[in-house]
Amino acid sequence: MKFLGKKGQLGIGNLLPIGITFVVLAIALGLGATVLDSVQDGQTTGSYASNITTDGLSSVEEVSSWMPTIALVVVAVVIIGLVMLFMRNR
Fold this sequence. Notes:
Elements: H1 15-41, H2 48-65, H3 67-88
């Protein structure tokens, strides 16, 4: 399975692998947040371990907040590529 077409173009056939990648990434971020939250519950407030876990949770939240933007950019690139492909073949 090739990600790029003959001339490095994204096509409709590439949407499924991109979609699966986003689903797997979302599941991994969700599981990571769940694990960090459960680990944090068993720690003493203000300890080094608690502070590291809090930083990890905020990092996972930051990465998760960028997912819609990344998805929008990928879809826009695919749409622009398809429009340019159809315009060129006219």
